[in-house]
Specification:
It contains 16 helices and 9 strands. With 382 residues, it is α/β, with parallel strands linked by helices. Strand 4, helix 13 (243-255) and strand 5 form a beta-alpha-beta unit. The longest helix has 29 residues, at 41-69.
Amino acid sequence: MATLGAAPPEASWLDRFDAACNAAIASPAFRRFASNFPLTRPIARRRARAVFDLVSGFVYSQVLLACVRLRLLEMLAEGPATVDQLAARCGLPIDGLQRLVDAAVALKLAARSRDGRIRLGSLGAPIAGDAGISALVEHHSLFYADLGDPVALLRDGAREDGELARYWPYCANRSGEGFAPERVAAYSRLMSASQTLIADVVLQAYPMHRHRRVLDVGGGEGKFLSAIAARWPQLGLFLFDLPPVAERARASFAAQGLATRTQAIGGSFLSDPLPLGADLLTLVRVLHDHDDASVMQLLRAAHAALPSDGRVLIAEPMSDTPSAETVGDAYFGFYLLAMGRGRPRSPARIGEMLIDAGFVKPRLIPTSMPLQTSVMVAQVSG
């Protein structure tokens, strides 16, 4: 069994204290004492539960996937039901449905009413009401396959035939030429569904009434611009994305009656100049998909495309974000590795890159939900 060593002499008192605590926690004798002593028993139980959740989290994710695929949470959103009723609607034997319900109740996805019927749980409610979350849960089956051997992924990087690398076609083809329509449609739909999760957070953090025209680079089907259009009808709205994606955005804008207020322009921001005329350029979940060289190329192009009073807004999950480390560092750290390119970056690192690209005064804007996204803004000039 591995033992925990003491902190080096040059370590701070806090590091030495942490090392001493961890050494104690690693001791079976101390854990037995802590679990029996009344004052430390609640802490010991919470930590044991947290450790078990880490060990068994893969099971929890599959329980959630089963609930989503069977549309169990949507059924419960319609009202409480018996196990027999749910089994019939889901097409499962009663024993199988009972096992799923028991697991869902344990995970707070479902709950039991006093009369024994099954109702929606506190964690199931936001999932049942949000198509974007359900789409991500379904999508994670691909990610799950790529994580089958995490050590190989860390050692060798993403495989060209990996599930996520094949799902995101622009990982290998940056121009977008020759994309099969069905592949473009698949990832564009996912981006659109999941973008609704963060659009409100971004727009609450940064009101856009001070601007004249917004250019959303890498904006997919235009979900973010559609949210802006609903709040600020006076703004001119432009979208720039790969040609087959921009075509889908034009169709989406037309279906919403926004064709006269929006313009979707096709091109690659890694090889084509960005359109001129906007005083706000937005990059929503774009930077972390790319390596440092591509990000610097994009930021310099953004600086060149903006007027002297222009600003760039970057919105994405960032590493080193207090209370959101599991998203920025754990989830996206491995997701982007499996995808084959990109990495999560801290606000400090993004700020450095913005300054290197010519921007000034980068600042992090607080958001209501840093777990979903952080927001940084920088100016073209002082």
